Amino acid sequence: MSEQTVSVIIVSRGRPDALLRCLTAVAQVQYRPFEVVVVACPAGIAVTETFEILPNIKCIAFDEANISVARNLGLVNAAGEIVAFIDDDAVPEPQWLHHLVAPAVRSDVAAMGGFVRGRNGISFQYKARTLDAQGTPYDVEIDPLQATILVPPKGRAIKTEGTNMAFRRDVLVGIGGFDPAFRFYLDETDVNMRLARAGYATALVPLAQVHHGYAASATRRRDRVPRDLFEIGASWAVFQRKHMPKDIRATHWATQVASERKRLLEHMVAGRLEPRDVRRLMKGLKAGYSEGQSRSFGGTTLARHALLPFRPVQAPRRAAHFTTVRGLSGTAAIAAAAQRVAKGSIETVLVLSFTALFHRVYFDAKGVWVQRGGLFGRSDRDDPLFRLTTKPRRAERERVRVSHVRGLDTV
Questions:
Q1: DSSP code of 121?
Q2: Residue 2: predicted pLDDT
Q3: In CATH, what number is assigned to the domain containing residue 17?
Q4: Are residue 174 and residue 265 in the same domain, yes or no?
Q5: 87-117, pLDDT tens digit by residue?
Q6: Could you give the number of structural domains in the chain?
Q7: Alpha-carbon span 14 to 44, nearest angstrom
Q8: Whole-prediction pTM value?
Q9: Of 133, 223, 278, 353, which has the fewest beta carbons less than 10 angstroms from its beta carbon?
Q10: C-beta separation of 170 from 281 below 8 A
Q11: First CA to last CA distance, the chain
């Protein structure tokens, strides 16, 4: 059976270096056939057009602070049966699409969402979550090794994360795509609520993993401290008007205000914000909420057929390798692995020191997956602080841990 065609859509604004790293990882994705659609500012377009590893990328110029409009531009230019979204400050594991879109063989599945790892490459930012009628997410336990297909009860929805989600193109177009009224926040939550209302099922796929870095932007610093809360306030106002009865909106808004104030005060106590910053940000939150009361929403009409034909990228199929070295040999091993990546392989280098240091994983600029940590230290954060082992045993344990997402189990 042939695999379904997939369009990977990446929206980028003001972060060309992050976009380049994302594209480097996308070039290692082991799925055929897929195309890449980049919707970006001039700096992002320049990076994409000079990216020689992935020829045939569709470049769509857009330089406005509205992620929903940008995603809709990607959607109308995408010709895949499935459209998958990833942020420019994230990198996908090589088997990402293979796992993410597999549930689409079932005709009742309209959306698919994967798991998101954080900056240390180990801990999860997001796993499986559902949404209540007020858009509040709740964790849910699912099988960690296979997709779980969920049909939400009335008034609830299944959460997909904006940096790791996919939809049937015809279904997403049919419900109007992303609502431009959500310029930065709650955009995918709104889509989740509308899909649930239409009766579609969503698959949550633990092995479809991306690593998300939270790069700095106009709305937040790199340490996740907010720069501006206006659009969060505006988005909540729009969300309430679209999805919540009038009699509960005031109480819901008071809860959101208290939550944002608590978050800002925690940053202030930690020294990341000053009292005047808290006052300014809260003022912006409330001003956004006021503006959102009159913001137009919905009514988006999208082209049923893609504006551009399907343009598969010519990425080579790659063999995956796993190398383990001691700490002092790490730099040389990573450099050697980078040379093999340039020749068409997927390389993971495990650098072990004779310590109990926690492990971290990152995808470097030359395309090497690097894991560093102590021979006796934690990788999974549920592990004991110290585990007595040998280098061969530890290497095999870490190889198995990443095998399904990295493609090592297929070699």
A1: S
A2: 52
A3: 3.90.550.10
A4: no
A5: 999 999 999 999 999 999 999 999 999 999 9
A6: 3
A7: 7
A8: 0.96
A9: 223
A10: no
A11: 21
